[in-house]
Design brief:
This protein is an alpha+beta fold. It is built from 14 helices and 15 strands. The chain folds into two domains: 2-110, no CATH class; 116-420, Rossmann fold (3-Layer(aba) Sandwich), CATH 3.40.50.880. It has helices spanning 2-16, 36-48, 70-79, 88-99, 136-144, 153-157, 188-203, 209-225, 235-245, 254-257, 265-268, 299-302, 322-327, 407-417; strands spanning 22-26, 53-57, 63-67, 84-87, 106-110, 116-119, 149-151, 166-169, 229-233, 310-313, 334-336, 345-346, 355-360, 365-373, 376-381. Strands 6, 7, 8, 9, 10, 11, 12, 13, 14 and 15 form a ten-stranded mixed sheet that branches. The protein has a five-stranded antiparallel sheet with strand order 4-1-3-2-5, with helices on both faces.
Length: 428
């Protein structure tokens, strides 16, 4: 793609001749950007054409900048992204302002567009995932026009992951309990979901869904340890760690896999194997939507009215802590809460090395967390859809054209561009 991008730039120069040195600035202020989400897509597109970009952390909402060409300007116009043309000298002054040790800003160079994969069930003939619910990451990638590949258990176990820099785990149940959705057992989609899951596990050589999912979880862990970037939302966050802790232990009720769970399963959990969580207790019995005590539960059990459900992003030092600063870039520090099968995390179950990026302080819950594993990184984001507070199974998908400045969706896209940054060691 780099060679192709350089060829494009060469053709531009040949057609329109040299341009006066200037930069395109994509402002990310609350009132200056019409398409916050699509601005990420334009920046990704520029990187994909072999041109480096700047991410100006904490400068005007986390703005982007790259060299000005008529082609790049046209792309901004086509996608409706607000931009400003900044002369070279003015851009240098901005970098000098950001470099001032007295201001909480940093200029991060973005070097290469990351190759993105979404872990999601098999797709139909139209390229849509077969399931009764949509995925927020897939929605926002599509809206922002950022390309991605879809893969699932077969591709992961065939060692396809090393082809990618970034992986999103769909709203998955890695414990083999079919999402603990027994309340929907009479719905046609539930039986189809169960049958497809079993057929896939058998075709891969496993006797149970839980066994195939554990193999997938361990493959992903190896990939992260080698330098991959893993992002997960909703139930995929909690069940990923539960599956790791329960390696070699049957935690599935016979309703799910045909034989009873180990009566001593709880005492056999190994929390040393998990990414984020420790000392949690598994849910009792096959009924109920909760997997464990990690999750804070649904809105009515949290005693938080939907109109008062917000969480706050931490304000990190951009110069000293660039990684969490990247992940929390936004035009507001207060984000609307939203419910999922796994909504948020009780702080007492977080490991000491877990970094909390966003929290509901009054409820003592973490909503957005991050950590390092081996040479790689992981980020967990609670909830299902940042713009649909209580999204239910089979509800229509969110129309992001109605939410082009969504702060909750911006956090997802921060993670998308994170692998493109020239990273510095965290100092605190």
């Amino acid at each position: 793609m780099i060679k192709k991008g350089l060829l494009v730039m060469g053709l531009i120069a040949a057609v329109i001749g040299p341009l006066k040195a200037a930069y395109l600035l994509l402002p990310m202020d609350a009132d200056k950007q019409k398409q916050h989400l699509k601005a990420y897509g334009v920046t990704y597109w520029v990187l994909n054409n072999g041109v480096e970009a700047w991410w100006l952390l904490n400068y005007r909402g986390g703005s982007f900048a790259f060299e000005h060409t008529k082609l790049f300007e046209k792309e901004c116009l086509t996608r409706g992204v607000s931009y400003e043309i900044i002369p070279d000298a003015q851009f240098k002054n901005i970098l000098d302002q950001i470099a001032n040790p007295e201001v909480n800003m940093e200029a991060m160079k973005l070097e290469k567009a990351p190759k993105i994969a979404v872990y999601t069930p098999e797709v139909d003939g139209k390229g849509k995932a077969i399931q009764p619910w949509e995925d927020a990451v897939t929605l926002v990638l599509t809206y922002a026009e950022i390309p991605f590949d879809m893969l699932y258990d077969r591709e992961v176990l065939q060692d396809k992951l090393p082809q990618y820099d970034w992986l999103h785990l769909h709203h998955e149940d890695f414990t083999g309990q079919l999402g603990r959705n027994r309340g929907y057992r009479n719905a046609s989609w539930y039986e189809e979901y169960r049958q497809r899951s079993e057929d896939l596990a058998y075709s891969l050589g496993y006797k149970k869904i839980s066994h195939s999912k554990l193999a997938v979880v361990k493959k992903i862990r190896e990939w992260v340890a080698g330098g991959g970037f893993m992002f997960a939302m909703c139930s995929a966050t909690e069940t990923y760690d539960i599956a790791l802790a329960a390696d070699g232990v049957d935690i599935c009720n016979e309703i799910f896999d045909g034989d009873p769970e180990d009566p001593n399963a709880q005492s056999k959990l190994d929390f040393n194997k998990t990414f984020a969580f420790k000392n949690f207790t598994l849910a009792n019995g096959p009924y109920g939507h909760n997997f464990s005590t990690i999750d804070v539960g649904r809105g009515w059990s949290r005693n938080v009215a939907p109109q008062q459900d917000y969480f706050t992003l931490f304000d990190f030092s951009a110069k000293w802590d660039p990684v969490p600063s990247i992940l929390t870039q936004c035009h507001t520090r207060t984000i609307k809460g939203f419910i999922g099968q796994t909504t948020a995390y009780k702080k007492q179950y977080l490991k000491t090395n877990v970094l909390i990026l966003g929290e509901h302080k009054a409820q003592n819950e973490a909503r957005y967390i991050h950590g390092i594993f081996g040479k790689g990184f992981w980020t967990f984001y609670g909830g299902h859809d940042p713009e649909d507070y209580l999204h239910r199974v089979e509800d229509p998908e969110t129309d992001l054209s109605l939410h082009p400045d969504s702060p909750g969706y911006r956090l997802i896209l921060n993670n998308i561009l994170f692998p493109a940054a020239r990273k510095k060691e965290r100092k605190t």
